[in-house]
Amino acid sequence: MKQLVLILFLTGALLSCNKANDSTADTYKNQFFLPPPTTYNYKQIDSVKLFYREAGDKNNPTIVLLHGYPSSSHSYRHLIPMLATHYHVIAPDNLGSGYSTHLDPTHTTYTFDVLANYTEKLINALQVDHYVLYMQDFGAPVGYRMMMKNPKRITALIVQNANAYLEGLTPKRQHFFKTAQTDTSQEQHDFLYRLTGEDAIINKQYLFDLDSTNLNIQSPDAWTHDLSFLHSKKDREIQVQLFQDYYTNLLSYQKWQNMLKENQPKTLIVWGKRDLKFNANGAKAYLKDLPNAELHLLDAGHFAAEEKTRQIAQHILLFLDKNKIK
User: Fold this and answer.
1) Residues 56-76 as b or e (16 or more Cβ within 10 Å = b)
2) Residues 79, 61: contact at Cβ < 8 Å?
């Protein structure tokens, strides 16, 4: 009889222990952060294929991430999963960049109008009616061209080292863009072409505004990926043509500023303050037309999304939540 009582006691204790372990395991499992998977997609637009990365529930508000020079959607590979738990995220490659079709520049003249038209067609084809617009570098002239057509389509604006004011460009930088357009000499062309080479991409782009104490913050994956798409002469000529067209953006700044002032979009500015190409005065200048914008100057350079990914993601999530875009 005593043995039976002991057996029943031990059995009950084991069952109780297993239930406790199961409960603890479930609690622990629910604490895991498992972002939605990113998918890698192509969409046929007219005669070309545009590549885009996508993650998150399509029923959630959409964030469109527009990349800069000399990169592609690859520059958002770390940011996408940080946002996708709460939002639907789309990051396209510009026509002529990354995995998107690279039309022959001897037959197609690459301009920012062309890039914007194809990107807008992609967003339309994906049936995205309204979206949060994130822009960096070349992403600004693409994004603002899209926004000029229908400002109310943009539910919020996120500006990351994306210039729209002359204050963000030194006189030397303004002269560079003007000369790139107006000087049609072979010497000027060859100068622009050299800017698309390996040394310039690494040392004049990614490492340009970093000092020797923080070089390890910049992943070599970034420039290795970019250079793989700047391997041929035709690929490099695409970027030369965009340099030659860039001055049209400076001439459009006043129109973009008027559009911002009139529409007052909810705006978050997260700007790498060590950026020497698009300096922090360009970030502050937005406040002239958008006095309610939220401004954060980060201890980062031009590629702040590479250096301060978590910090930028936190700013975005808090900003969108505060503005009830969720």
Assistant:
1) beeebbbbbbbbbbbbbbbbb
2) no
Is 302 among the catalytic positions? yes
Length reported for the chain: 326
Residue 131's DSSP bridge partners are 154
Alpha helices in the chain (DSSP H): 2-29, 79-84, 112-125, 139-149, 171-182, 186-194, 198-201, 220-228, 233-245, 247-263, 280-289, 304-307, 309-322
C-alpha dist (Å) from residue 40 to 91, 168, 315: 10, 34, 26
Nearest 5°: the CA angle 80, 286, 243 is 70
Judged by DSSP in three states, 31 sits in coil
Cα–Cα dist 306/70, whole Å = 13
pTM: 0.90
**Cβ atoms of 218 and 205 closer than 8 Å:** no
Q: Are 297 and 271 in contact (CB under 8 A)?
A: yes
Give the active site residue among 67, 102, 302, 315.
Answer: 302
Per-residue pLDDT in tens (0 to 9) along the chain, 326 residues: 445 444 444 445 444 545 545 555 555 556 677 899 999 999 999 999 999 999 999 999 999 999 999 999 999 999 999 999 999 999 999 999 999 999 999 999 999 999 999 999 999 999 999 999 999 999 999 999 999 999 999 999 999 999 999 999 999 999 999 999 999 999 999 999 999 999 999 999 999 988 766 667 888 999 999 999 999 999 999 999 999 999 999 999 999 999 999 999 999 999 999 999 999 999 999 999 999 999 999 999 999 999 999 999 999 999 999 999 98
Alpha carbon distance 8, 156 (integer Å): 64
Instruction: Give the Cα separation of 203 and 200 in Å (integer).
Output: 5
Q: What are phi and psi of 41, to 5 degrees?
A: -130, 160
| CA within 13 Å, CB half, 44 | 2
